[in-house]
Amino acid sequence: MSIDFLEPTDFSEAMALLSEYGDDAKVIAGGTSVVLMLQQKLIAPNVLVSLGRIEGWDYVRLEPDGLHIGALTHLRDAERSPVLRQFCPALAYTFSVVGNVRVRNQATLGGNLSAADYAADPPAMLTVLGARARLLGPGGTREVPLSEFFLGFYTTALEPEEILTEVIIPVLPETARAAYFKYTSLSAEGRPCVAIGALADFDSDGKCKDLRIAVGAAVETPQRVESAEALAYGQTLTGELVAAISEEYARTLDTLSDVRGSAWYRKEMIRVFVKRALEEVRDGHR
Ligand SMILES: Cc1cc2nc3c(=O)[nH]c(=O)nc-3n(C[C@H](O)[C@H](O)[C@H](O)COP(=O)(O)OP(=O)(O)OC[C@H]3O[C@@H](n4cnc5c(N)ncnc54)[C@H](O)[C@@H]3O)c2cc1C
Fold this sequence. Notes:
This protein is α+β, with helices and mostly antiparallel strands. The protein has helices at residues 11-21, 34-39, 75-80, 82-87, 89-96, 101-106, 109-115, 122-128, 146-149, 226-230, 239-252, 263-283; strands at 4-6, 25-28, 47-50, 60-63, 66-70, 132-137, 140-145, 150-152, 155-156, 163-170, 177-183, 194-202, 208-216, 223-224. The chain is 35% helix and 25% strand. Helix 11 runs antiparallel to helix 12 (263-283). The mean pLDDT is 96.
């Protein structure tokens, strides 16, 4: 069976094609995920609507409301962007540990998020940074916080004719510190078994005034545990408190089992890596 490969040159044209072909069409950006899905016969579209010839949506730029990353930005370009590295080194690091350099040269940020693969790196980190996805559809543009974008396994808030165009990360307080921890159980370049994004902010006495930790890869969608985060508010992150917060994450989350580890093992790793992330945001720099 042949597949038509259509190459619109702007998003309006892409949306019109999605509308015209409906369920027969599939968006393709870098193709690192779509091609595998085609090879494994998980999808069988008649038409691929490629975003590859659409210009002007691969950028990282700082605007008054935060950092804007175009959906067609390759992960490798995001990782190396001086603006992004200055804005949040932990986010640059997050992009730098996705797969390997060949994958990152091809994969786009929009594709990574839209695929909604639970075993991904950027979602947990972007969730704690308060990122929003900007979606373009027939009715116009809307913004969805990433905390509401991932609905389940391989499922997002994107409507059938919508396209993710941009990710916006609000400006972080000067005193905030972020960290990303990726634990791989199979190979160093593999997808995460557990992914931890962390952000903390402290007052001048070293008391915690904001703490956000999102666990990814071990659960269906990136998860924060507010009861655990709340333990930190107004407190110094002592070793005892760090252990209590880590324990609460491990206890609360409904972890999954797959080839990278059992649900039990993932809880053990969550306890270890939430602790490390907390120590990093307490002692390190963003
Ligand atoms: C060998 C290998 C190793 C990998 N390792 C990791 C890893 O360690 N960590 C990690 O996070 N990821 C990993 N990945 C996944 C990789 O990051 C994603 O496949 C990639 O980011 C998807 O981007 P893409 O541009 O190639 O998307 P595509 O494959 O083109 O598309 C992916 C999905 O998103 C949809 N889509 C794409 N762009 C848009 C858009 N702008 N709007 C709406 N829908 C859109 C497509 O229809 C499709 O459903 C790995 C992949 C491979 C092949």
